[in-house]
Amino acid sequence: MSKLAEFGRRLIQLGRKGKGDTELAEEMRQHLEMKIQANLRAGMTPQEARFEAQREFGNRTRLQEESRELWRWGSFESFFRSVRYGLRVLRKSPGFTAIAILTLALGIGANAAIFSVLEAQLWRPLPFPDSERLVEAHLVLRERSRQWDVLPVRVFRAWQSESHSFTNMTGYLYPQNRNLTANGSSERVDVMAVSANFFDTLGLAPERGRAFSPDEEKPGGNHLAILSHALWQNRFGSDPGMLGRVITIDGDSYTVVGIASSTLRIEYFYDEPAIFIPLAMEESKVMRNLYAIGRLAPGFTPQGAQTELEAILQRQLKAEAIQPEPAAAVSNLRETWTQFGAAPLYFFAGAVALVLLIACVNTAGLLLARGLARQREFALRAALGAGVGTLIRQSLMESLLLSAGGSAAGTLLGVWLVQAMSTFIPAYTLPRRAPVEFDTRVVLFAIIISVASALLVGLVPGILASRVDANRVLGQNSRSFTAGRRQRRMRSTLVSIEVALGLVLLFGAGLFLSSFIRLIEAPRGFEAPGALTFRVALRGNDYSKPEQIQRYFRQLTDKLDSLPGVHEVTLGSGLPLAGTDLWGNVNVAGRPPVSKYGLSVDVFAVAPNYFQALGMHLLAGRAFNPHDDAGSARVAIINRNAAKELFGTEDPLGKVLEYVAAPERGVPAEPPVQIIGVVENAQEFNANEVPFVDLYVPFAQKVAPSAYALLYSDVPRGTLSDAIRAAAYNIDKDQPVYDMQTMDDRIDESVSGARFNLVLVAGLAGVAVLLVAIGIFGTVSYFVEQRTQEFGIRLALGASPRKLLAHTIGQSLLTGAVGLALGVATSLALGRLLRHALYLVPHEHTGMLYGVSIYDPLSLVGAGGVLFAALLLASYLPARRAMCVDPMVALRHE
Amino acid sequence: MTKEVLSKKAVLLPGTLEMLILRSLERTGEPMHGYGIALYIKQISKEVLLVEEGSLYPALQRLAIKGLVKAEWSESETGRKARYYKLTAAGRKQVTEEVAGFEKILEAMLRVVQPA
User: Fold this and answer.
1) Consecutive H or E run containing A585
2) Closest-CA residue in chain A for B93?
C-alpha cells in the first residue's frame, strides 16, 4: 500500500477538522437505533431493546476514541511540538538568535547572489530553441589543443557538405564595427556577416521580412541587411516601413529585408551585433574571423561529431598534401561563448561558499557554547525519558529555525546584493549582457543551502548534548559544573576551523591586494597624462586607395593642430591599451626562419611624433622623422620584446625583416623593412599580459584605414570633444568619431577588472574576519560566564585579576594559533591546486593574479596579523569581565 | 458474566475482523452500512464470531486509512442519510490474497489439531 496515498488520506481527514468525529458518532448512533428497532420488532420492551442493543454494541466512547486515534499523526504532531518549543527557546535569548540569524543571512545571501550570477551568466541555456544541441565547430592546433586556429573556407565547406552529425551547419564572422548611415546621421554599430541558414540553425526566423537565401551568399548579391530587433526599435522607432528601405554601411547601400526576432540576442561579443548581412564566403580563401555553428542531429553527441569532422579534415589535408597541423574540435556553444568569464566566477563562488562555511561553523560553535549552558535542561529531559533521537531532533529543529530565519533575511540581502552587483560589475567582465536577476531557482537554491547549513550547524551540538550524563549533571545542585572535556575540545576545534577558513580568505584578499598594487605600479611603457584619444575608421568607396586615406588623416591632423589650445597631435593605427588592427609574420633576412610562418607580430603604423607624444622611451637607434615617407627606404622600429625574440643579445639595428606571406591564413605579402630603432615594451591591452611582439612602421609607408588620434590641449574636455567632432564632420560627415577617451581613462579601465576582483575578495574577507571575531567573542563570553564561580574562588584566594585575564586570553589565543597553522597549510595547498587557473596562460585564459607569488610571505603574514589582532580584541572584551568578577557575588552565584 | 462469554467468543485472530468486513463487502457486491455489515457477518458466521458490534467501526477506519474501503454518505432504504462502505480496487485485491493466505493457515492448523 502506497504510503503517499495514505498520507494524502490522512491529510484530507486533518483538513475536515473533527467532521470525521461527528460523522462517526452519528453513524454509531444510527447503528444502535436500527438495532433497537430490530429488537423491538422481535418483541422486547423498549427498555430491554435499548439495553440489549447497547450491550451487544460495546463501549461507544472507547470505540470512538479508538477510531479517532487511528487517524492521528504521531510524528507530525510531535514535529509541531518541537517547532513550538524551538521558537520559545530562541525567543528567550534574542541576542544569540539575532547574531546567529545575521551570520547565516550573510552567508546564505552572498551565496544566493553569486548563484544567481553563475546561473544567468554560465548555466542558463542560450535564448534559442533547444539551444543545448548547438555546438561550435572549430580548428585547434594539434599540439596546443586550447589554441584556436583559423578555419579555412574550404574546410568549412567540406564539413558543411560531407558531415551527417548535424541537421544544420552555419557560418558567421566575428562582428565588426562599421559605420551605419541612415536618416541623415551616422554611428558605429557592430555588423555580423552570417550564412543564409544562420537564423534557421539557431531556430529563430526573422520576426518580419525574411532570412537570406543561399544565392544571396554569392559575392555581389549580398547587399542585403537584417536589422536586430533592438536597432529597429531604438534607432528606427519600430517603423514597419523599414522593410525594403536602403541603409548605408561603410558607404555601401544595403536593402533591409528583415527584422530579427526579439529573442535573438547575441550578447556574447564585445558589443551585440546590430545588423546581420549575408556572408559571401567565396570572396576569399581565408576569412580570419570565420566561425561555424552546428545543430547536432538527433542521437549525435559533440564527441561523435568531432570524430566525424576530424575524419573529413584529415581527408582534405591529405588530398591537398598539407602537413596535418590543425585538429577538429566541437564544443557546446553556450560553454564556448561564455568560457572566458567562467574561471573568475567559479573562483568567487568558491570564496563565497567559504564564507557560508565559516558562518555555519560559527553558528554551530555558538549553539554548542549555548548547549553547555543548557546541559541541565537536556539532562533533565533525558532523565524524564526523552530519547537520544528526540534531543538531536530538538537541536536540529532549533538550527533549522535559525537557518530558516537566516535564509529569509539572506534572500532579501541577496536581492539587494544582486542589484548592487549589476551596477557595480564593470562592463565587459561578464560573458553575457543578460541581466542578473533573482528568480525562483535562486530562491530554491537559498532554501537548499539553508537546509544543508541547518544540518551542518545542528548535528554536532545535538549529538554532544544528547550524550550528557544525566546523573553527573543533575547530581550537582549548582551551575558550577564546567564544560566536559569533549565539549571543550569540540568547541576549540570549531574555533580553529573557523580561524583557518578565515585565514584562507584573508590570504586570498592579500594576494589580490598585492597583485592590484603591482598592476597599478607596473611599468606601462608609455606616459601620456591628460592626452585625449579617439578613433576614426574610414569605410566606403571614397577610401579604397591609400592616397585617399592619407589625405583624410593629413586633413584631420592639420585641423586638430589648428584648434585653439591644442599642443600636440599624433596618429597611429593603434594605441597602447587599445591594440592595433594590423599584423604580420616576419623572419630576419639572411637567416634560417624562426618558424615556417615566421614570427607573428602586431604592426603599428604611426606618425613620426608618436613615440614622443606617448612618452615611449627609445632604447636604441632613432625615431621616425617626416622624411620616412612613401618614397624613401622602408624602415621599422621594434619593441624590446621583439628584439629579444628575434635577436637575443645581438644588436638589431640595421637588420632587415622580411614579411612571410601566408595567403591561406590571410597574411598579405609586403616589402622588407630595415630596423632603425628599439622602443620599450608598452602595455598592449592591459597590465596583466605577456609582452607582445610589436613592429612600428611609419604611417606614410603603411596606410591604415582605421586609426587613433591623440592630442594634448588646455581646453576643457567637453569643448574639445565638440570641436573634434565638428572638425571630423567637416572633412567627411559619414565618418564618425568614436571611442573617445583620455589615456588615463584607458589605464583606469585596464585595471577595473582587477579592482573589482580586489573589492569583492576583500569584502568577503572582511565578512569572514567579522564572523570569526563574533565566534570567538561568543566562545570566550560563554567560558567566562561558565567559570564565574571558579574565578571568584581564585580571586578570593589571591590570584591577580591581570593573571586571570592573561589566562583567559591565552587559552583562546592557543586555539587561534592552531587555527592559524591549519589555515596557512590550507592556503598553501589551495594555492598550489589553483595556481594554473589564477595566473595568465597565453591563448588559454586571463590571469587573476599578477606578479605576486602564490606563496607570497607578505600576504600570509599580513593575513595572520589581521586575524591575530581580531582574535585578541574578540577575546579581550569578554575576558575583561573575568577580571571584574566580585568574589563575593561570584561565590553566591548559585 | 460478560468476561467469560467474551473470552469464549473472542478467539479472533488479529486482522480477522478486517478480513470479514472485506469478505462481506465482496460477497454482497454492493455498498453496505455498518449495521448491514454487522448483520451479514452475524449470519454467515452463525453468530459466533462477532465480539462487540461496535468494534466494526475502528476496523472500518483502519481499512479506510489503508485505502481498502471507501465511505460515502447516501440515502438508506428507510430514506435516511447513512454512511455506506464499498470495496476499492486495492481492497478487492487484498481480499483474494488474504483469503488464500487464511486458508493456508487454517489448513496447517487443522493438520496440527487432527490426529494423524
Assistant:
1) strand A582-588
2) A1
Kindly state the cell numbers that stand for A691.
609582452
pLDDT bracket for residue A9 (50, 70, 90)? confident
Segment among A105-119, A664-678, A726-740, B5-19 with least mean pLDDT: B5-19
Instruction: With a cut of 70, say whether residue A733 has pLDDT above it.
Output: yes
Query: With a CB-CB cutoff of 8 Å, which residues 47-86 of chain A face chain B?
Result: 55-60, 63-64, 66-67, 70-71
Q: How far apart are the first and last CA of chain A?
A: 57
Three cell numbers written together for A43: 418483541
Q: Which amino acid is at A257?
A: V
Q: Are β-strands A185-194 and A635-639 bridged in parallel, bridged antiparallel, or unpaired?
A: unpaired
Which member of B54, B62, B90 has the closest CB to residue A63?
Answer: B54
Query: Quick check: B6 contacting A, CB < 8 Å?
Result: no
pLDDT of residue A55: 85
Question: What's the 3-state SS for A133-199?
Answer: HEEEEEEEECCCCCCEECCCHHHHHHHHHHCCCEEEEEEEECCEEEEEEECCEEEEEEEEEECCCHH
Tell me if residue A200 falls in helix, strand or coil: helix
Tell me the pairing of strands A224-227 and A252-259. Answer: parallel
Sequence-distant (6+) residues with CB within 8 A of A819 are A495, A496, A497, A498, A499, A500, A502, A503
Query: What percent of the residues of chain A are helix, what percent strand, and what percent coil, each to the nearest 5?
Result: 55, 15, 30
CB atoms within 10 A of CB A129: 13
What's the confidence (pLDDT) of residue B1? 38
Where residue B79 falls (left for φ over 0; alpha for ψ -120 to 50; beta otherwise) is: left
Which residue type is seen at B74?
Answer: S
Please check whether residue A717 is in contact with residue A565, taking contact to mean a CB–CB distance below 8 angstroms.
no
Where do we find the cell 554599430?
A: A189
Q: Which of B21, B22, B35 to mutate to test the interface with A (most CBs of A within 10 A)?
A: B35
CA distance A144 to A165: 25
CB pairs under 8 A between A and B: 67
Tens digits of residue pLDDT in A44-74: 888 988 888 888 888 888 888 777 777 766 5
d(CA A576, CA A373): 65
Range from A547-551, A659-663, A770-774, A850-854 carrying the lowest mean pLDDT: A659-663
Region B71-90: mean pLDDT is 82
Task: Give pLDDT, residue A2.
Answer: 63
pLDDT of residue B106: 80
Weakest mean pLDDT among A45-49, A379-383, A526-530: A379-383
Read off the DSSP letter of residue B87.
E
Nearest CA in chain B to A71: B65
Residue A746: what residue type?
Answer: R
Higher pLDDT residue, A489 or A445?
A445
Length of chain A: 894
Over 60: is that where the pLDDT of B116 sits? Answer: no
Residue A453 has what pLDDT?
A: 83
B2 — pLDDT class (breaks 50, 70, 90): very low
- The neighbour count for residue A187, using CB atoms within 10 Å, is 13
Q: Is A469 on the interface with B (CB under 8 A)?
A: no
Q: How many CB atoms lie within 10 A of CB A716?
A: 9
Residue A816: partners with Cβ closer than 8 Å, 6 or more residues away: A495, A496, A499, A776, A867, A868, A871
How far apart (Å, rounded) are the C-alpha atoms in residues A449 and A433?
A: 27
Q: Does B70 touch chain A (CB under 8 A)?
A: no
Question: What mean pLDDT comes out for the span A164-191?
Answer: 87
Indicate the average pLDDT of chain A.
84
3-state secondary structure A421-471: HHHHCCCCCCCCCCCCCCCHHHHHHHHHHHHHHHHHHHHHHHHHHHCCCHH
- Give bridge partners of residue A738 from the DSSP assignment: A535
Q: What is the mean pLDDT of residues A672-691?
A: 90
